[in-house]
Amino acid sequence: MKLGYTEFSFGYAFTENLIRSSAAGPKKAPVFPNLVQEATKGYDVRIDLPGLPLFFQYKLPELMKRDTAREIATYNLAGIMVPFFRMPLMPSGLSRQHELLIKLEKKYPKTVLYASPRMQDLRAFNLAYVNGEVHRRSVFFSPKDIGPLPDPKAHSIAYRDGLSYAWLCSEPKEITVTNFEALERQVLTSFGQPRFRTLRVAAPEMRELIRSVVSNPMREAEPAIATQIRARRAAERPDTVRHLEQPVEDILVAREMARIDLGIELVVAQPREI
After folding, report:
1. Which DSSP state fits 268?
2. Bridge partner list, 58
3. What gap in Å lies between CA 97 and CA 55, rounded to an integer?
4. Greatest mean pLDDT range, 23-32, 218-227, 245-254
5. Could you say which DSSP state residue 41 is in?
6. Which of 64, 108, 204, 210 could be 254's S-S partner, Cβ–Cβ 3.0 to 4.6 Å?
7. pLDDT of 104-116, one tens digit each?
């Protein structure tokens, strides 16, 4: 059964609610996140604060409402009963997306995630959006935890609201479900790592690692992407301080390459104050 809202709507609402929750947080709480995106004038980042990249692959599931679903009728998966969600994975025969996400996660452990909703219909989705809670009403899966897909056929993740685990099908394998609160705690811990201590340090590494994962045509397009970003930023922020130019450019270029070539959204999490 379709949920009544699209994957695009979910991805937009998730990201927008993430930004909105950041603005409403207490002064000493982590800002989650500062999102570097084209539509944001000024690119609200602090170069001297820690910066942790998070990569989200948005996935829209189907809501399964019948006991004849194979997860129940054939596999009898523990904890799975109707209604439950079935999240599709991109078949390896059509795309290397899952393989590349695993490769990226090896370089950025626990920061590359599939994000999928727990809202069963349009009414629940709209309510979550109005309350700024779409990101909190979502679940997250690690590509590395899922592991390489065993064959080029269709595979999916079966999960249920409230369960701390899910199942990879069609050869059942239990995997961990991460909620937003656990992800937020993980982000706080990661800020202490030297590689994320400041965006000045993290940004060039971010760009280099994305470059190492994307396709050859995208690597060849990188200089043109950088030129377009510099031109846009010069028009929007003519007063930009020169020493801040390169780190922000690195983040924007990395984000654009990841979005176009890998289909993932790059978000940068930063604490509001140290």
Report:
1. E
2. 115
3. 13
4. 218-227
5. T
6. 210
7. 999 999 999 999 9
